[in-house]
């Protein structure tokens, strides 16, 4: 697919390719794919096909996935005048742009399609970072080289552009090129194998790859070409192309990616975390300032990912709650929607994340809380309805989630977010909640008796919500709450004994 302007307009005002060696290309037309053979099926899945604009004003380019959220490509793909790529403004692209990732054969239905949400351009070369609206998590990003290219070095150049015989190819193509000269921001290349290969329209932004052991790394991006032999190009005896260097941009790329992640994290609301032993992954969930659910993870201790959006378009309030179910090896995330309903999204190794599902037409306030009861193999969720009634749903043995039901008499009302604790010594659940009278109440579940009546834990008064923890070293269940005077208070239950009274954290517990 060609750029949307006629060829005569593209040729005017061309950029020089810098002062390279005598073998370098010095004046070229913007390359807007590689006329070479097709790679093996599945190879170079990080290559990205970019479709920019609508049917009347459309252009196609190539890029590379370098992060689950980020594609690197040529700025000239987005410029009003491709010969002046450094004029591309930061922010959303002027024309709707979609990225197809992981589909080197466009006739198949594999891969992922994402919208481009934001551009971060360089001002010194034909290069831009394009942020995806939602991440691609099933494709390994391409690593960016950190050593400079050298004259005489071979690079594998790839792209989705036209070939010698195809106007709009359906497959990625690649060819081997040799570097003829290097300058501070770019390099000149000439075809090596096949000897008549060329960089054609649609290849702009495509990755030039350096072989590094058993994998490839990104050394440069396609920028401009003489398009010798490309279908529809004017006859010329000139060959070769000019590439934009990327090896010296590692710090800038990391800064751009990290800056966006930091903004997302800074805007986030309450968080919840879980460890998934099935995948050896620590996971954290939070609400962004616009209410979108975001997610980050650390697998095998190899470092934290960036933030990902779960369910584009869904918006929530409060804090999310997440539970790992070892029976099904799934994660269930619950959150209160802006309409007051509680929604659930489920992750499994086989299917990834499901869409958000409304749990029922009940309405809630505040945030839900979750627990897994290994004694009954039950995942459980607790939340307050809009009138303050404590409600509960559960999933036993992975047989599906129940509907909501009320714990205790419906005339008992609470505020804030409840806290739930499984005690493995007694195989019980202890549920704590702050009453509308500011007293802290507890209800206990056991297999023998079910849920007890609500019991006031003492005469102390609390504001906000309690939190709980079980200490396996001392076999102690613990609950914490902030008194209305701001003091942190604490109650404990050691082994199978009774709960203590409240005490200020750091003081000896007392009764009452």
From TrEMBL:
EC nos: 3.4.21.-
SUPFAM superfamilies: Fucose-specific lectin (SSF89372), Trypsin-like serine proteases (SSF50494)
Signal peptide: 1-33
Pfam hit, one: DUF8189
Keywords tagged on the record: Disulfide bond, Hydrolase, Signal
Segments forming domain Peptidase S1: 33-258
Top EC class, one word: hydrolase
PROSITE patterns hit by this protein: TRYPSIN_DOM
GO molecular function, one term: hydrolase activity
Family: Belongs to the peptidase S1 family.
Name this protein carries in UniProt: Trypsin-like serine protease
């Amino acid at each position: 697919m060609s750029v949307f302007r006629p060829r005569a307009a593209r040729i005017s005002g061309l950029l020089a390719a810098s002062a390279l060696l005598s073998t370098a290309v010095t004046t070229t037309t913007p390359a807007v794919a590689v006329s070479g053979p097709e790679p093996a099926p599945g190879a170079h899945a990080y290559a990205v096909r970019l479709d920019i604009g609508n049917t009347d004003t459309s252009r196609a380019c190539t890029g590379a996935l370098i992060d689950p959220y980020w594609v690197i490509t040529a700025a000239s793909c987005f410029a009003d005048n491709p010969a002046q790529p450094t004029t591309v403004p930061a922010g959303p692209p002027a024309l709707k742009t979609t990225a197809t990732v992981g589909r080197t054969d466009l006739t198949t239905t594999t891969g992922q399609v994402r919208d481009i949400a934001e551009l971060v351009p360089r001002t010194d070369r034909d290069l831009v970072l394009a942020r995806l609206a939602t991440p691609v998590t099933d494709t390994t990003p391409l690593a960016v080289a950190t050593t400079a290219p050298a004259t005489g070095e071979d690079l594998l150049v790839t792209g989705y552009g036209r070939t010698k015989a195809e106007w709009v190819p359906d497959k990625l193509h690649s060819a081997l090129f040799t570097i003829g000269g290097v300058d501070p921001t770019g390099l000149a290349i000439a075809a090596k194998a096949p000897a008549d290969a060329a960089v054609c329209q649609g290849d702009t932004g495509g990755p030039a790859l350096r072989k590094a052991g058993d994998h490839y790394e990104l050394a440069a991006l396609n920028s401009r070409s003489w398009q010798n032999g490309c279908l529809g190009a004017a006859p010329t005896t000139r060959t070769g192309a000019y590439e934009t260097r990327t090896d010296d941009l590692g710090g800038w790329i990391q800064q751009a990616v990290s800056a966006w992640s930091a903004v997302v994290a800074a805007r986030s609301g309450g968080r919840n975390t879980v460890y998934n032993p099935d995948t050896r992954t620590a996971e954290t969930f939070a609400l962004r300032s616009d209410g979108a659910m975001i997610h980050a993870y650390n697998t095998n201790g190899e470092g934290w990912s960036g933030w990902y959006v779960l369910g584009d378009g869904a918006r929530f309030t409060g804090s999310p709650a997440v539970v790992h179910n070892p029976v099904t090896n799934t994660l269930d995330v619950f959150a209160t929607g802006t309409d007051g309903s509680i929604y659930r999204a489920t992750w499994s190794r086989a299917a990834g994340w499901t869409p958000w599902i409304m749990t029922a037409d009940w309405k809630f306030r505040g945030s839900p809380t979750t627990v897994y009861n290994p004694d009954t193999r039950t995942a459980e969720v607790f939340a307050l309805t809009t009138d303050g009634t404590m409600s509960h749903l559960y999933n036993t043995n992975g047989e599906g989630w129940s509907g909501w039901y009320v714990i205790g008499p419906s005339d008992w009302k609470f505020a804030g977010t409840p806290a739930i604790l499984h005690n493995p010594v007694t195989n019980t659940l202890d549920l704590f909640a702050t009453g509308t009278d500011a007293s802290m109440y507890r209800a206990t579940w056991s297999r023998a008796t079910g849920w007890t009546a609500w019991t006031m834990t003492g005469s102390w008064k609390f504001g906000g919500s309690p939190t709980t923890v079980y200490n396996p070293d001392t076999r102690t269940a613990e609950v914490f709450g902030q008194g209305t005077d701001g003091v942190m208070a604490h109650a404990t239950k050691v082994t199978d004994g009774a709960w203590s009274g409240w005490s200020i954290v750091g003081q000896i517990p007392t009764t009452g």
